[in-house]
Amino acid sequence: MKSWGEEHEGIPLYRLNKDRTDVKNVKKYLYSQCQDPFDLADVPDHLMNITTDQIASHEVEESMKGIPDRGKVVFDLGTSPRKVSGNQ
Q1: Confidence check: pLDDT of 40 > 60
Q2: 83 phi and psi, to 5 degrees?
């Protein structure tokens, strides 16, 4: 069985090694820019913009605190049985 470098005749081994290193560096950079949404050990304790990594102001954080509760109220209103008025 041929090694990886031998299968690519005409491409110098140093070039293959350089390309392999470049791919590793690009992958390392990309992974460093992402946060695993399921890794709860690395969750910031403040609200952040996931695109820019900017920390939200105190006013923005305060305005966002009630959203889950308000969403539940709206959901409950929209899914509760209603009386239908009119001709039946």
Answers
A1: yes
A2: -80, 135
